[in-house]
Amino acid sequence: MPNKRNIVPTIRANDNLQTLYVDGAEIHKRNDGMHFIRFTAGLPEGTFEQFRIIIDAEHLHKIIDAMCSNANYYPEKPAKRKKAATQK
Known about the structure:
Blueprint: E1 24-29, E2 35-43, E3 46-55, H1 57-71
Antiparallel strand pairs: 1-2, 2-3
């Protein structure tokens, strides 16, 4: 009998969806805590939006973790910049 330990989750793929090439992204945090992400592709004619998503912080973190793991790239948070002393 199946139980939660031996059930393999599946993704129901939609073969009608296009596979899009992207080489850029803009991410904006909204006032409600959600994130707006626009994926773009740079072409000789200009930069074109390929698709956009709205995602909550928890799922965004999971996606970023998966991408970093697959790319074997783990960026570090940059140090805070100190304000430059004003000159008189």
